[in-house]
Amino acid sequence: MHCPFCRHPDSRVIDSRTADDGLSIRRRRQCPECGRRFTTTETASLTVIKRSGVVEPFSREKVMSGVRKACQGRPVTEANLAVLAQQVEESVRASGVAQFDANEIGLAILPHLRELDEVAYLRFASVYQAFESLADFDAAIEELREHPAAPGTPSSAASTATQE
After folding, report:
1. Domain ATP-cone: where (predicted)?
2. Which of 62, 72, 92, 126 is the most exposed place for a label (fewest CB within 10 A)?
3. How far is the C-alpha of 97 from the C-alpha of 128, rounded, in Å?
4. What values do phi and psi take at 5, rounded to 5?
5. What would the pLDDT profile of 70-121 be if each residue is shown by its tens digit?
């Protein structure tokens, strides 16, 4: 890290702390040349490669807007969408890879969306798993029936309420 005061090419880390957002590290540094101190903030970046080849930073907001479309008319709140976007980012970061195809992000959304709302899951899956016929929908519905959402999740609570 270059010193911002004297441009010396090295600096020594004096203190490191997690920033308030939990996604970055705040480092206090000192230049061995001029002795002045400065602060840096470091974040691990995630990038997404679009189908067109364009590379852009990962955005929770884009995850939310894509899922929001699938959730239209469903009992899903903005808070639910924010939690889902956070879960997706955490699962993507946990893989240890810094660059993903946009399709991989879409596939990473599916398990979290399935727990949130099964109808929205089917809508979203039809795009990201490239459903081509009613048989694809039938297979996905059969999979949902064979392996329903865990008790206590929003999906299962909604389906229990409609069955009563």
Report:
1. 46-136
2. 72
3. 21
4. -95, -50
5. 999 999 999 999 999 999 998 888 887 889 888 889 889 999 999 999 999 9
Could you give the C-alpha distances from 40 to 16, 31, 130, 159, in angstroms and in order?
A: 10, 13, 44, 49
Please name every residue paired with 12 in a beta bridge, in sequence order, or none if there are none.
30
Q: Is 22 left (phi over 0), alpha (psi -120 to 50) or beta?
A: left
| CB-based contact 49:20 (threshold 8 Å) | no
Q: How far is the first Cα of the chain from the last one, in angstroms, to the nearest whole number?
A: 63
How would you class 62 by CB atoms within 10 Å of its CB: exposed for 0-12, middle for 13-18, buried for 19 or more? middle
Q: Which residue has the tokens 């929001």?
A: 68
DSSP output for 88-148: HHHHHHHTT-SEEEHHHHHHHHHHHHHHH-HHHHHHHHHHHTT--SHHHHHHHHHHHHHSP
Any idea which residue has 């959402």 for tokens? 149
**Of 95, 99, 127, 93, nearest to 113 (Cα)?**
127
Instruction: Report CA-CA distances (Å) from 131 to 26, 109, 126.
Output: 45, 17, 5
